[in-house]
Amino acid sequence: xxQASPATRELKCLVxxxxxxxxIVPNVAVAEIVTQQDVxxxxxxxxWLLGTGTWRGLEIPLIAFDRLCGERDAAPxxxxxxxxxxxxxxxxxxxxxxxxxxxxxxxxxxxxxKLRPAEGSPHDSPLVAARASVGxxxxxxxxxxxxxxxxxRHIGRRA
Length: 159
Fold this sequence. Notes:
159 residues; globular
């Protein structure tokens, strides 16, 4: 069997700055980065569900992932910069959702030498698949399936 070349083991990612540890996601999971000023609050929603916003004519849920997984003590501002993520087909979640970020994301090309499991115990939240070290920074890897389930539980499928 042929061995994979170094280029095929590289993965283009975005590091999403948040309160506490950043989130790292593959570029292909991101649809767009937007600034959202008009956020419609949802009644009886958990504090991590900031509301909904309109993106390309679709109503999408806007979330604070760092609040959802326990990395942020207080809910962030409802408006601001969001990374629009593709939802998971077949999970029942919305086809798109926005994740609130604190600053512009940076691109990162990761490979097995650059991306390593973080030392210490796993993250307490089931919404975090792993803690990873990227260079000298610790990042969280989201559990996309569980996140989709959580979104479905609170808002259902939209768009």
